[in-house]
Design goal:
The chain is 64% helix and 9% strand. It is α+β, with helices and mostly antiparallel strands. It has a 4-stranded mixed beta sheet. Helix 3 packs antiparallel against helix 7.
């Protein structure tokens, strides 16, 4: 190889080294010019001398922290819900016991009231019944037909009968005798007579076999007497 060629090789090699040296020098210069704030917090190789290296043995990832928070929240929610239901159940049970006690006391007072005021209650009920019946007598024209029909059921063996009624009831009866045709066909002779002293709604039937007293006041008195007999019988 000629001396010219050797010289060329040296120049090229020197140029390459110089270039690499220049680039490395620039890298060192750039690294020295970087501010300290750009240093990564986890780059422990660049920690300033004299400072203690942090202990990461107890480090918990943020995902694990969030997971533990969710679990703790759910556990607390379920525990609070269970406790709330138990307290509500205790309160409801307390109200139920109180209500049962009130119902029992009311039943006892009611029984005592009716026992102590039985006579008054019965008389009041009979008085109400009288008022209702008397109202029906004056407002329902069919009421007298019902009363006579029921009285005729108690007369079955006589051929002749006389039916006594209040004059106003007799007028109603004469206008609708056909309503009693089925019951009256069993008798040979039927006579209707007005009687002023009879209360409206009732009647008296006289026959060869006796008298059927179907007056309202008499029937109500019979009901009242039956109630007293039942009471004393108990």
């Amino acid at each position: 190889m000629s001396s010219y060629n050797l010289r060329s090789v040296k120049i090229v090699r020197n140029a390459k080294i110089a270039s690499e040296a220049f680039v490395f020098a620039d890298f060192l210069q750039d690294d020295q010019e970087k501010p300290e704030s750009s240093m990564s917090p986890l780059d422990l190789t660049k920690m300033p001398s004299g400072e203690q290296t942090p202990d990461l043995s107890n480090y918990i990832p943020i995902e694990e922290v969030k997971k533990r928070e969710r679990v703790a929240f759910q556990n607390g929610f379920q525990q609070g819900k269970k406790q709330g239901l138990e307290e509500a159940k205790k309160e409801v049970d307390s109200y139920i016991r109180m209500l049962k006690k009130l119902v029992q006391e009311w039943q006892e007072h009611r029984e005592k009231f009716f026992k102590d005021h039985e006579i008054t209650v019965v008389r009041l009920a009979l008085e109400i019944a009288k008022r209702v019946i008397h109202r029906e007598v004056h407002t329902d024209s069919d009421f007298i037909f019902y009363m006579v029909r029921e009285a005729l059921k108690r007369v079955t063996t006589s051929s002749k009968i006389r039916i006594k009624l209040h004059p106003d009831d007799l007028k109603i009866l004469e206008q609708g005798k056909e309503k009693l045709s089925k019951e009256l066909r069993n008798f040979v002779q039927v006579e209707f007579l007005p009687q002023e002293n009879l209360l409206r709604g009732g009647c008296i039937i006289e026959s060869d076999m006796g008298i059927v007293d179907a007056r309202l006041d008499v029937q109500l008195a019979a009901i009242e007497e039956a109630l007293w007999e039942e009471r004393h019988g108990d």
